[in-house]
Specification:
Strand order of the largest sheet: 2-1-3-4-5
Distance between the termini: 60 Å
Shape: elongated
Oligomer: single chain
Structural class: alpha+beta
Helix content: 40-55%
């Protein structure tokens, strides 16, 4: 087993490093080590943190924790139920902070602010999820509703279901938003056909479809911006 203390100057374990230089000075593995506190017989806390990051994949980093369950994390030697729950709570806190910050600039006539607001909620999902966003007469958020959760590359939604929900909530406008698990937000042919049908329905009931936004990995496509609506 490597000597944990030999990795740092005297009195400068990750916790001490935090106190002296602040959280921004710590690597992702060191941040995890502070939270985990203990390692295993064969791995110190920083090494255990690196193993967790390896599971998450370089593409995702710490945000990759969203892809795993408590049972998944418990497969890592040294991670019991308590530590697994702690890790997932950290990931959830990070997601909520990001969403809260994005909400300050949320304006539904600006696709970039809508995409930013829903980005952390949507981009980590392994299957497509379609949201219906209901807006009032001043384009303010009334509510959002999950219409469907589909396979990795397809979702089925009903224009009739959208019509019923919009009328029931007395919405003045609607938006659609869904994610592409591949990370590429380019609309598919199915996305375009589906959006066209929903636009027709929305015009019939005088509740306009303002936009359809596809969420990818830190990227988005707005049907309105692309002239597809």
């Amino acid at each position: 087993m490597s000597d944990f203390k030999e990795m740092y100057p005297k009195g400068e374990l990750p916790y001490d490093k935090f106190l002296r230089m602040g959280a921004e000075s710590l690597t992702d593995a060191e941040l995890l080590a502070v939270m985990l506190r203990t390692g295993t017989k064969d791995k110190n806390p920083v090494e255990l943190g690196r193993e967790i990051l390896n599971l998450c994949d370089e593409k995702w980093g710490l945000l990759g924790l969203h892809h795993y369950s408590v049972k998944d994390l418990q497969k890592i030697p040294g991670i019991g139920e308590v530590k697994a729950v702690q890790l997932l709570c950290v990931a959830e806190i990070a997601k909520r902070i990001s969403t809260m910050q994005a909400s300050r600039n949320l304006t539904f006539n600006r696709p970039d602010t809508v995409a930013e607001y829903y980005m952390e909620q949507m981009r980590h999902k392994n299957t497509e999820q379609v949201l219906l966003i209901l807006l009032d007469s001043k384009n303010r958020l009334m509510s959002d509703v999950v219409l469907s959760t589909g396979t990795v590359n397809a979702s089925l939604i009903s224009p009739r279901e959208i019509l019923i929900k919009a009328l029931h909530e007395e919405a003045s406008g609607i938006m659609l938003l869904h994610n592409h698990p591949s990370g590429d937000p380019t609309p598919s042919r199915q996305d375009i056909i589906m959006t066209g049908k929903i636009k027709e329905v929305s015009e019939l009931i005088d509740i306009p479809l303002i936009d359809h936004i596809v969420i990818g990995d830190k990227r988005y496509t707005s049907f309105k911006q692309e002239g597809l609506l």
